[in-house]
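Journal club side-thread
Mid-discussion, someone asked how the predicted structure for our own chain would compare to the paper's figures. Pasting it here so we can look after the session.
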Amino acid sequence: MPPPNLQQLLDQSRFPGRFEKEHEVIGDWLAARGHLYDRIEFNVPIGSGVILPDTLVEPYRSNAERSAAKRADVVAWMDGGVILIEAKGRAMSDAVGQLLVYRPAWEVTFPDTPVLGLEIICRRINDDDLRGALAAGITVREYALEDGAQP
């Protein structure tokens, strides 16, 4: 069943914590695949983040730790688990690395919710990075610009 707020998400032009090219890719992904998920969240903090020295005073310490946390661009819920999604205009090997770190970070943060898959959504990805992502078990979805422009 699609998320109850899917139309609202489709109407959004901005998504929390994302750059402009990532907003566009997320919008294309939502239009193509948003209906497949039960719930969709953005900019979800996962993992332990950065631990700062106790000598740093509050509220600066907790604020800095919170803002330095790893964040999944998109978390798509389905069948009691999640797909962790990294959005990029031009995906490169860093997107692969981020997702490989996000899986165990999610499992520590949310041990009762399994990761069903990892996915990169992008405008472009080069052949080497695509092969690396696929070898790591990461699904890659390219959403090319209609006018053929480069991201």
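Post-session note: Residues 4 and 59 are 36 Å apart (CA to CA).
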